Amino acid sequence: MKNTIKFLIFSLLISSNSFGQFYATQNGEINFFSETPVENISATNKTVGAILNTATNELAISMKMTAFDFPNKLMQEHFNENYMESEKFPIGTFKGKIVEMIDYAKNGTFDVTAKGQLTLHGVTQARDLKGKLTIENQKINLICNFDIKLADHKIDVPKLVFAKIAEVISVKTKYALTPYLKK
Hints:
CATH class: Mainly Beta
Radius of gyration: 17 Å
Oligomer: single chain
Largest sheet: 8 strands, antiparallel, barrel
Strand order of the largest sheet: 1-2-3-4-5-6-7-8
Order of helices and strands: HEEEHEEEEE
């Protein structure tokens, strides 16, 4: 996962001339939930890389699709092989910028919007993601809840199992970011 953070930093640096303070995590968490009358599906990925450049408000997030853990291994296999095609599209990303101006030197909780590009299943969509950013003692916590329409990312659900998978998936994310120190 160290390579993920290095990649995220590199991606932020090439898009920016400013070298602000970087806050990062390799243990961000993404949960998703699909509710249907037939079956509920949930999964968690606790190895999501995220980095925030506080000088520019740029934010980058990267996750391995195969790192989602399901309560049922067959669901996990179907997710990776049939729906996300994780071998072909191994990484999901969000690259954007927090719109609001935040004074990162002050503790507090702020409503924020990250405007950027979400890439899943090889399809990139412009997204405005609303969340809460909390600063406390040089630590930044960022949470965000949003929905993803499978059709927006060309994720096909076979008609045979269509009743088991919702067309819109609920996503919850949380990141505990600390100052990034080069090793």
